[in-house]
Design goal:
Blueprint (H helix, E strand, L loop, with lengths): L3 E3 L2 H15 L7 E5 L3 E5 L5 H10 L7 E5 L6 E2 L7 H4 L6 E3 L2 H8 L14 E6 L2 E9 L2 E4 L9
Parallel strand pairs: 6-7
Antiparallel strand pairs: 1-2, 2-3, 3-4, 4-5, 7-8, 8-9
């Protein structure tokens, strides 16, 4: 059984500071939950912490809330599913690379993109027009695709 940890205001603010540095997300009025190894989830429902603890004892914790970020020693990156949550999407203003329709088609099938970027970050948000398509890892002259396999276009 996976243990969950409800993050206090200090830990929540540290995560928000990392997300702000990464892409500009600085304010979220959600309960922050740490589950597994460095996986951060958010929850905005009407259940109390005690009710969530009781549920987590009976079902897999990944069912509580939405994953928002992975925190590691190198850098924080926003999760694929979180970038299009309206409250988050409206705040993402930094560390974005705009790609063409042709590149977007390749990206959504799981291909890496051959693009040079001047970002000093390890990860970058991929955007096409008004759509945020995911987060990629900058590796020299290309961006490694992090779109989950089950979300790729076939």
């Amino acid at each position: 059984m996976t243990l969950i940890e409800f993050l206090d205001k200090t830990k929540k603010n540290k995560i928000l500071a990392k997300l702000d540095e990464f892409c500009g997300v600085s304010k979220l009025n959600h309960l922050f939950i740490k589950s597994g190894k460095d996986k951060i989830r958010i929850f905005s429902g009407s259940l109390s912490k005690d009710e969530l603890n009781e549920i987590s004892q009976k079902i897999h914790v990944e069912l509580i809330g939405s994953r928002i970020a992975n925190i590691d020693s190198e850098e924080t990156r926003i999760a694929f599913d979180a970038i299009n949550i309206p409250e988050i999407k409206s705040q993402i203003k930094e560390n974005i690379i705009e790609i063409t329709d042709e590149q977007a088609e390749k990206w959504m099938t799981g291909e890496d993109l051959q693009i040079e970027t001047n970002s000093n970050k390890k990860y970058i948000v991929i955007k096409n027009k008004d759509d945020l398509l995911g987060v990629g890892k900058i590796q020299g002259t290309f961006i490694k695709n992090y779109v989950p396999k089950e979300r790729r276009v076939r």
